[in-house]
Amino acid sequence: MDRPLSDDERVAAVGSPQFFSVFGGSDPDTPGDNDVADMRDGDDAAWAAIHNAGTIDLLARCLDGADSAPWFAVHQTGCRLNRLLPSLECSVDQLAAFMARTQGTALADVVGTEAVVQWLHARPAIVADIVAAPTDAVLSVNLFTVALQASGVTATARSRLVDGDARIRFQAINALAWMPDDERGAAETLTALESVTADLDDEERAGVLRVLFHVNGLHPGADIAPLLKRSLADGGAMAQSQAVVGLTRTPSLLALAARDDVAEALIGSRASTSRVYSVLVRALAKASHGDAAVRLAERLAEPEVTEALLGSLPGEHAMAVVIGWLGRDAERLGPGIERFFNERRARTLGLVFVPPGAIPEEPGMRILVAMKAMCWLLLEPVTVAAIIVAFLTVANGDDQQALTQLLRTVVYDHAAARDHLSSIKEESGVIAVIGPLLEEHDAYQRSLEKMVTIAEMRPSEAHRMTLRMVKDRASQAMARDVHDQSSFFSLLPRSLVLHGAGIVYAVHDAEGGTMPATMKMATVSTSIALPTLSVLDPVGYDMLNVRNHRADLKQ
Fold first, then answer.
1. Domain enclosing residue 341, as ranges
2. What is the top-level taxon of the source organism (predicted)?
3. Cα 20 from Cα 13, distance rounded (Å)
């Protein structure tokens, strides 16, 4: 039907189980002007008129049955009620009760604060009464905050900052975080907050920080740094989280966060989680405040923060920071460096350029940094090789010999490093070192491939007979029993030649044949059945013991 509902039909709908569909307009089959696309202001006015006449109580009816009605119908009901609320007549207590009962429901998602503000704007006498003497019902739903916003008088909100009731004080702070003000009023707000900050709890301090960021948005020239640091002093997790959220909002606030005194206040009590600090470090690094981000990460020395920093800095800057940390603070920041490279291997494979200014001047420091890089960047051999090659370009004498030996260890342990060196050999500037090293490694690999075919590593006739017996089992059940309970399978001969870049692995069948394969070390577990014949590559074995990783790596 295209005609609008009559008043009698509206009253009947209030008592009907289909009220939410009719009022919200989510049921196009019900008669009347109830289709979502056809809602008109005249129909809204008609609903408001019969409510204001006392014939129906829309607020109470929208609450009754909302829990059991379909979500879409309740949502549409809330949308219409949001439009109607400013024109509905009700008492403050009725409105407060409605707001209290809708908290956490679908209605609360759409009946917003703006509608309540409009309702209060149309009733200045009620606003004055709420501001003068807020009741418990008003305070329980933060209606006092909304009333202060509706009054538009920041001086009134400032005057309630010293109230003995913590709820009034907190809601006054929240109101100031939304109210517009001129430059003089903003200065008075900052002065008023300075007098009460010391006595505030963590939640109230977070509210003060929201006010500060609001003032900065209204008047960027306002000096909020002193009050910001004071609010963060002995602050808890809520205040620090709010500070990080606010400081990453605009470039001017990020510049404020880059100041050492503000950063020191921000991390003073370490109340927030590493994830919160990572947000700030990442924002600073991406906003051309890289040095400030580095200093902040150094103060925190938390792996998650270090990872966030290195992932946000440009490649050359990140490499310079890593080399500097390896020379100074590897014990504190090494876990974060390791986490960044090991968990972001695919992304960091291109991090191979070492800025000339990052190369240590002292030969001993170059050797120390290269050795620490091998330890902390165990799973990022390309970056380690790039660091050592860069150091070799300025090395001489004993320095060069030690770095060459370290590079040899990296090449023997990681095929990826060997491939990288092969690709940069011509333009590296140290081809005299890299060329012979790669030739030596290639010859070594060829010698390994021959080891699995030597007679001593072939299975004996007794082993071959055992294998034939196992393979001749006709029943799968019997074969499973043999595998689970018998020692026969533990006698199957295998040969392993372990070396840093992987293993040469061979299985010897019952007929005396050999099936060799070359695999990366990380693809082999240590649960291979024994006995086996193993030859452990001695090259680089001392460095293996430093981290105790290579022979035990599993995927």
1. 314-449
2. Bacteria
3. 9
Q: What angle do CA 125, 129, 132 make, to 5 degrees?
A: 135
| Residue 527: per-residue pLDDT | 37
CB 307 within 8 A of CB 343: yes
pLDDT along the chain (555 residues), means of 10: 74 86 64 43 81 89 82 85 90 89 81 86 91 90 90 90 87 91 91 84 89 90 88 80 86 87 78 80 89 90 88 86 86 83 58 82 89 81 87 85 88 82 80 87 80 68 69 58 54 62 67 69 42 40 33 34
Q: What is the DSSP string of 310-337?
A: HHHS-HHHHHHHHHHHHHH-HHHHHHHH
* In a shared domain, residues 445 and 515: no
431 and 478, same domain (yes or no)? no
pLDDT at 165: 85
Q: Are 115 and 121 in contact (CB under 8 A)?
A: no
Residue type, 205: R
CB 72 within 8 A of CB 26: yes
Which residue matches tokens 């977070």? 206
Q: Is 437 part of any domain? A: yes
Residue partners of 18: CB distance under 8 A and separation at least 6: 27, 30
Q: Is residue 423 part of a domain?
A: yes
| Residue 193 domain flag | no
Residue 532 pLDDT: 39
Asked whether residue 438 falls in the same domain as residue 461, the answer is no
Question: If we measure between CA atoms, which residue out of 412, 415, 374, 407 comes closest to residue 520?
Answer: 415
Neighbours of 314 (CB within 10 A): 11
Long-range contacts of 138-142 (CB under 8 A, 24+ apart): 138/92, 138/96, 139/165, 139/167, 139/168, 139/171, 140/96, 140/100, 141/96, 141/99, 141/100, 141/103, 142/171, 142/174
* Radius of gyration of the chain measured on its C-alpha atoms: 37
The count of domains in the chain is 2
Quickly count helices (H) and strands (E) in the chain: 33, 4
pLDDT at 29: 44
How far from the centroid of its chain's Cα atoms is residue 270's Cα? 18
Residue 392 lies in a domain: yes
Q: Which pLDDT score, from 0 to 100, does residue 24 have?
A: 80
Which residue intervals of 165-259 are DSSP H helices? 166-176, 183-194, 202-218, 225-232, 237-247, 251-257
Q: Is the pTM of this model over 0.85?
A: no
Pairing of the two strands 514-519 and 502-508:
antiparallel
Question: Positive or negative, the Cα torsion across 368, 372, 375, 380?
Answer: negative
Residue 96 tokens read as 């407060």
**C-alpha to C-alpha distance for 374 and 543, rounded to whole angstroms:** 8
